[in-house]
Each structure stands twice: as structure tokens, then as C-alpha cells.
Amino acid sequence: QVQLVESGGGLVQPGGSLRLSCSASGSIFSFASMGWYRQAPGMQRDMVAVITKNGIKTYVDSVKGRFTISRDSAKNTVYLQMGSLKPEDTAVYYCNARSFPNLNYWGEGTLVTVSS
User: Fold this and answer.
1) Which of 14, 33, 42, 106 is least surrounded by CB atoms within 10 angstroms?
2) Which long-range contacts (C-beta less than 8 Å, at least 24 apart) are formed by 10-13?
3) Average of per-residue pLDDT across 45-74
4) Nearest CA to 93 among 74, 104, 78?
5) Rounded to an integer, what distance in angstroms lies between the CA atom of residue 22 and that of residue 6?
6) What is residue 112's predicted lDDT score, i.e. its pLDDT?
7) How high is the pLDDT of residue 28?
8) What is the C-alpha separation between 55 and 68, in angstroms, rounded?
9) Does residue 24 sit in helix, strand or coil?
10) Would you call 44 exposed, middle or buried from its count of C-beta atoms within 10 A (0-12, 13-18, 19+)?
């Protein structure tokens, strides 16, 4: 069974940086895409960044120029480098992996808090 484990969350000041990691139980190239989503209390889960099997990257407008998604196939790991963090970035960040057809996997989430 596919397992996704996130790490790297924590408390940072506005303007600071964090790098989140998502380790998969198998090859990341077995998935059509992998990505990061975030959810604040009482809010819906929102896509932040996605990378497809062939390396195409997509970001939500609010993080363009600040966040970078990347991968290390040898480690079966996807990263989210977050810079210039803002209080509105505060959320639980979830790793997501999708396979064809109709398969969707989630990690348990890691909390990012941006505050002074």
C-alpha cells in the first residue's frame, strides 16, 4: 500500500523560509503527479504546487515566485521549498500522489505556522 510521510513543518517568522519533504513508499515515477496541498481550520484543502511525472510544475497564484516544488527520484522524495513566508501561508500542508486511474493518496500532514 502506498504511504506518504511529510516532514519539515514548524514555526517561522514572516519573511522566513522552510523546506517540506514528502517521502513515498515506492518510486515517485509510479505516480502521474505529486504535489502539496494546504488546509487552514474551517477552510477547504487547496492545491499549492504540483509536479507531473514528466517534470511540469504548477503553482497556485498566491505562491508563485516564493515556493518551489522539486523531487529527488533516488530518495523517492518530493520537496516544497517555501520562502518569503506570510501569515496567510499558515496551514497544515499535505503531500498528495495521484495514479492512473482513479487513485489518490494523502499523507497525514505537517503544520506550518508563520507568526511573529
Assistant:
1) 42
2) 10/111, 10/112, 10/113, 11/113, 11/115, 12/85, 12/112, 12/113, 12/114, 13/85, 13/114, 13/115, 13/116
3) 97
4) 78
5) 4
6) 98
7) 84
8) 12
9) strand
10) exposed
pLDDT of residue 1: 78
Q: How many CB atoms lie within 10 A of CB 31?
A: 24
Residues of the chain above pLDDT 90, percent: 90
Burial zone of 53 (CB within 10 Å; 0-12 exposed, 13-18 middle, 19+ buried)? middle
Within 10 Å of residue 93's Cβ, how many Cβ atoms? 23
Long-range contact set of residues 11-14: C-beta below 8 Å, sequence gap at least 24:
11/113, 11/115, 12/85, 12/112, 12/113, 12/114, 13/85, 13/114, 13/115, 13/116, 14/85, 14/86, 14/87, 14/114, 14/115, 14/116
For 115, counting Cβ atoms within 10 Å of its Cβ (0-12 exposed, 13-18 middle, 19+ buried), the class is exposed
Residue 89 neighbours by CB distance under 10 Å: 22
